[in-house]
């Protein structure tokens, strides 16, 4: 009886849908089998998020929301990652916090006129390689998932 109770407390509850991290990674792996495509996604997903945060720093905060939009997005992503898996989510949360802080510092240093140009160039480069990775290197030619379709 005690062994069953101990086993019950040590087993993790299986999550479903977008919070099922194992299913998210399995889906990601099924869409990114070629090493060049997988590397493009691993290396270029964070710059896409970073430059998105960079541009969001220049949007005014809504009166009802005391957070700047970049911080709100970083917190939302961090919360989703923590909800999916505490350990991996904590690491992702730290990376998001560092990305938010770095993008805020860069936004203050560059100013809007230069920041949006840099962000646009990086976004175009990264998204182009996301699509080229699928079109040129994947046999299935599956279209890339947009950021809200798959958290990984």
From TrEMBL:
GO terms for cellular component: endoplasmic reticulum; membrane
Pfam families: Mpo1-like
Keywords for this protein: Membrane, Transmembrane, Transmembrane helix
Transmembrane parts of this sequence: 38-59, 65-83, 113-132
Protein's GO biological process: sphingoid catabolic process
InterPro entries: Mpo1-like (IPR009305)
PANTHER family: DUF962 DOMAIN PROTEIN (AFU_ORTHOLOGUE AFUA_8G05310), OS08G0433600 PROTEIN
Protein name: DUF962 domain-containing protein
Lineage start: Eukaryota, Viridiplantae, Streptophyta, Embryophyta, Tracheophyta
